[in-house]
Amino acid sequence: SSFGTGGRDLRQSRKLQDVCYDIRGPVLQEAKRLEEEGRRIIKLNIGNPAPFGFEAPDEILVDIVRNLPTAQGYCDSQGLLSARTAIVNHYQEQQIESITVDDVWLGNGVSELITMSLQAMLDNGDEVLVPAPDYPLWTAATSLAGGVPVHYLCDERNGWLPDIEDIRARITPRSKAIVVINPNNPTGAVYPPGVLEQIADVAREYGLAVLSDEIYDKILYDGAVHTAFARVAPDLFVLTFNGLSKAYRVAGFRAGWMAVSGPKKHAASYLEGITILANMRLCANVPAQHAIQIALGGRQSIRELVLPGGRLHEQREAALTALDKIPGVSCVRPSGAMYVFPRLDPERYPIKDDQQFVLQLLREQHVLVVQGSGFNWPEPDHLRIVTLPRADDLTEAIGRIGSFLSDYDGG
Ligand code: PLP
User: Fold this and answer.
1) 131 lines ligand 1 (CB under 6 A)
2) Spacing, Cα 339 to ligand 1 middle (Å)
3) Any idea where the Aminotransferase class I/classII large domain is (predicted)?
4) Which of 2, 44, 70, 337 has a CA that sits 20 to 30 A from residue 154's CA?
């Protein structure tokens, strides 16, 4: 036929063969179907603050609106100078001196920059060390770029800190970079400087670039302190990723950045590659770039949310308390971010396929969570729960998970 694809199947490219991003995968489709049937689903699946009543600081919105008339055109492909200057200052305050405005790229969220940084770096078969569990875009973007994600373990029995010996054991002549997610999604672990230094030692020894995703750097509990990787390793080539989606609650604006620190002499070609990709997509969303200066320079309202009495703090408490009531469920207390990543004892709950498990939970209890394997965790024995809903909703939802588990026989 001369219509459509002429009778030939239009198939996805082979590039997508190993690309997987389950946070918005088949389970979410089923949730949408149930909602269309009129069911109310409690959604504990996506780290998107605004829909849960976490509003952006007013000054950000006001500034964007005020700047709209001058934000109609494309800007420089690296981003607005005002935003990049504010980002330089943000790192200077953390004693990271080597970052200049030429070292900062703005993107449509950190997501776009993660994809660009790997596309520019990897030849087919090049390896990237990625944590397990991870925020799965890192794994997916490595595969999409032709690379091979090699997962190193974070150790649940050690507060989910990266297992340095495991990292060493996985290095090969094809290793090019190591990804660090700190504070971590999904575990909430915040890495002490000593752990970052040990990772830096490995990167130094094997000449690896470090890709440090610090998007939760201001979402910290119980007095936890975040240390930027670039701070502990000024002598290493580090790309630091951050943005406005979480701490400033404007995930929908798509405002993120990437900052290069350390010696650039041997990375000139790579940085040219980044420039090519940045040029090809012209520029990031300009109105949202205006928000960066005011966000970084203004009142840090996130602090009130993470202190005792603040919503994020209280909701994390509610989630941990509710989990604690379920026999055979344990959870490392997260020091940062906005998730809990509980373990379901496999002796008690013999889950074979954790996607099937969360699908069944969704259908029976109308609670939507993401299975641990969606974060490249190798065993079917974890779930990720977002702690953004109100404490009552969290308690209700986790109570329902408890009811579901009390009848669970591995089916
Ligand atoms: N990195 C981590 C660790 C995340 O958890 C997320 C979003 O959940 C992102 C990056 C993506 O952020 P952005 O909205 O800036 O694209």
Assistant:
1) no
2) 13
3) 41-401
4) 44
